[in-house]
Amino acid sequence: MKYFKENIRAIEPYKPVALSSLNRLDANESPYNIANQFTEDDIRSLLSINFNHYPDGSSNELKTAISKYSDVSEECILCGNGSDELIKIIFDSTIAPGDKILIHTPTFSQYSLNAQISNASVIEVSSKKDMSVDIDQIIKIACAEKPKLIFLCTPNNPTGSLIPLSDIEKTLENTDAFVVVDEAYFEFCGLSIADKIQKYPNLIVLRTLSKAFGLAGLRIGYLISSTTNIDFLNRVRMPYNINSFSSKLAVLALSREASIHQIVLEIIKERDRMETILNSLSGIKLYKSNGNFLFFYSDYADQIQSKLIQKNIGIRKFSSEILRNTLRITIGKSEINEIVINTIKEVLSNVQTS
Q1: pLDDT tens digits, 9-31
Q2: How many domains does the chain have?
């Protein structure tokens, strides 16, 4: 114990949910396995990989595919072992002990975790009552506190709230910080700030293939920024950070953009259907979501989670004070979603008539 740094000893270790036979609606994964679309030629191309050789250290083939998909120059792309590695690269490149970062809360926990590892201070700006992000307050506090990094997650995890592009630009123009915009769920809302990377030298955009593309098991993320920023970020990226197998599979998935688009549309359709039904129920407060999940408050959150587990469905219940009695449910396939809806109705009916 004494050999570990004090700030590391203070970290509460992350404990992923154990894999089980549960229908997993707790991690915002895609319910569709794109591997089912791979052909025999695709399989042969995977088997042709020379596994005795290190992978392409620059991920050139993958960057070419991402460039085509994102309509961004390859020189403006950095690939990572999931967005988590890219967040760490940003911290390693910019943050020294004692520096500050600013986040809106609630949001993705990896930002504050990396700050703690880096011995940086975290400035938290609470969201509004409707869970929208208070940009004016972020700018006001950023001007006073001078954080080096500002993280804006849009659509936000776990709330699903969307930050207007005009508010992101307002933050870029009125603060002296690197603004990191996490667009992990952007395919489900269609809005992106990535086309502004040349206009704003303080802009970094994070994305992933884990959500819309359903490649969570491969750990592929990418970052979009100016060529100058990419050059500096590349200096701390570990060599060969993406393995050959994941890279090739990601390229194959990116070549099926039309299929992915149809999957996204189906998930959005189910999200909107569930949202309409749940909004009609008393006993829950549903927040507008722009991701592949729903987020709501209920005094009966424990009962809802327990009853769904009995029906072999796992969902995410949050324990922090700011998120007390809130649940996040990933959008699954229609038959699973129907079980979720009927179970919530059952729980609310039972508690309200008892």
Answers
A1: 888 876 666 556 579 999 999 99
A2: 2
